[in-house]
Design goal:
- The chain is of the alpha/beta class and 223 residues long.
- It has a single domain (2-221), classed as Rossmann fold (3-Layer(aba) Sandwich), CATH 3.40.50.150.
- Helix content is 41%, strand content 23%.
- It is built from six helices and seven strands; from the N terminus they run ααββαββαβααββ.
- The protein has helices spanning 2-21, 24-48, 82-93, 131-141, 159-176, 187-192; strands at 53-58, 73-79, 99-103, 116-122, 142-153, 196-203, 215-221.
- A seven-stranded mixed sheet has the order 3-2-1-4-5-7-6.
- α3 links the parallel β2 (73-79) and β3.
- The structure holds S-adenosylmethionine.
- S-adenosylmethionine binds next to loops.
Length: 223
């Protein structure tokens, strides 16, 4: 726990300066780009790099995941926040036509049932109003046998850190200004939505500007 707090404090000054100097979406974009440069890129590539066919990314933010999709993936990113979406659309335009971004809400997806070969949720379930609702919508629009990929930071499973993350979640939400909860763990909800979990990777990184959250990368499919 002390190591995680030390890591957070080490980056806090630079990050709060960046946050003051840039509008919200631009800050988020710069923050993600810095983390990717420092090694987080490999996490993103491993998450989505093998996907092909019609792919939906729910909550694409500024499009930080876009460069990591293979050209065999025809990606539709949806994002509800206009400032984030504007940057995502600009990034999608540089992606040789295989990535598009549009306005959309993961709570009410504007797609028919069984549409996509894969659905991606990258660092999104921490900030949606209802994890259950978004996962149920994801399940509805992915084809039978289709892939579900989730990357998420989760609440610590250790008793004291987990308790402290619950206690300090309101403070964290004030600091991040993006509706991000740090005390969720959506793995059971992925299963409860009907997905079959194929593989879970647990990891924690101290080498990027991101807080050293416990993280999970989940590969699942719709049976
Ligand atoms: C931390 S960003 C992650 C962006 C991107 N997926 C990535 O991997 O970097 C979380 C995004 O989830 C979006 N979000 C929040 N609620 C949402 C909802 N109901 N439906 C879709 N996206 C949502 C936020 O607007 C934000 O852009």
């Amino acid at each position: 726990m002390l190591k995680e707090i030390g890591h957070f404090l080490k980056n806090a000054k630079d990050l709060s300066r960046l946050q003051r100097e840039h509008p919200r979406a631009e800050f988020s974009d710069l923050f993600m780009a810095k983390a990717d440069e420092q090694g987080f890129a490999e996490v993103r590539r491993e998450l989505v790099g093998d996907l092909a066919g019609r792919v939906l990314e729910i909550g694409c933010g500024t499009g930080s995941m876009f460069p990591y999709y293979d050209e065999r993936a025809n990606v539709e990113g949806i994002e509800p926040e206009e400032d984030f979406l504007a940057l995502a659309i600009a990034r999608a335009k540089k992606m040789d036509g295989h990535v598009h971004a549009a306005r959309g809400d993961g709570m009410n997806l504007a797609f028919p049932d069984d549409t996509f070969d894969a659905v991606v949720l990258g660092l999104v379930l921490c900030s949606v109003p209802s994890v259950k609702r978004v996962l149920s919508e994801a399940f509805r629009v992915v084809k039978k046998g289709g892939q579900m990929r989730v990357l998420e930071h989760v609440r610590s499973e250790a008793a004291v850190p987990g308790f402290l993350m619950n206690l300090t979640n309101p403070l964290w939400m004030t600091l991040n200004k993006q509706g991000c909860h740090w005390n969720r763990n959506p793995l059971d909800e992925v299963r409860a939505a009907g997905f079959v979990i194929d593989d879970v990777l647990s990891f924690q990184r101290f080498d990027t500007v991101m807080p050293a959250f416990p993280m999970r990368r989940v590969r699942a499919h719709r049976p």
